[in-house]
Amino acid sequence: MSACLFCKIAAKQIPSTAIYEDDDVVAFLDIHPAAPVHFLIVPKEHIATLADCTEHHAFLLGKMMLLAPRLAAEQGCNYVVDAQGVASGGFKTLFNTGPDGGQEVYHLHLHVIGGPHPWRG
Ligand code: AMP
Ligand code: ZN
User: Which end of the chain, N or C, is more open, meaning fewer C-beta atoms within 10 Å of its C-beta?
Assistant: First the structure.
């Protein structure tokens, strides 16, 4: 059995607040949210970091990126431009990679962080 936290969450061996699942990825709420909306999009395959991805992972990475705005909208931080061209809403997308990137969990994950002030501190 894998000792990896996000492998265990993907396999439902550890509980999470899931918001999405398909054959390739799961998405769940971050346990320590940095903003009103903060969830993680995580591949079911164990890949340690973005730097470990290869061309083999291009479809998976594209799927993760395309899921971000869709799930962000479902979670309440939709990006819209009104008829006058005024934009509102939105979110941040973030991959932390390695020690200098602030990565704590070494299983690839895409942070989606939104709300009025989607940044830490
Ligand atoms: P990173 O620093 O990019 O590796 O981010 C890891 C993220 O995982 C942090 O934002 C944590 O709050 C989050 N996290 C850690 N454990 C859990 C958990 N059991 N369920 C949900 N999110 C978690
Ligand atoms: Zn893993």
Answer: C
> Which atom of ligand 1 is found nearest the CA of 28?
21
Residues 52-78 have pLDDT tens digits of 999 999 999 999 999 999 999 999 998
- Which one of 32, 103, 110, 113 would you pick to mutate in the ligand 1 pocket, going by the greatest count of ligand atoms within 8 A of its CB? 32
86-94, long-range: CB within 8 Å, 24+ apart, which pairs?
89/114, 90/114, 90/118, 91/37, 91/115, 91/118, 92/118, 92/119, 93/65, 93/68
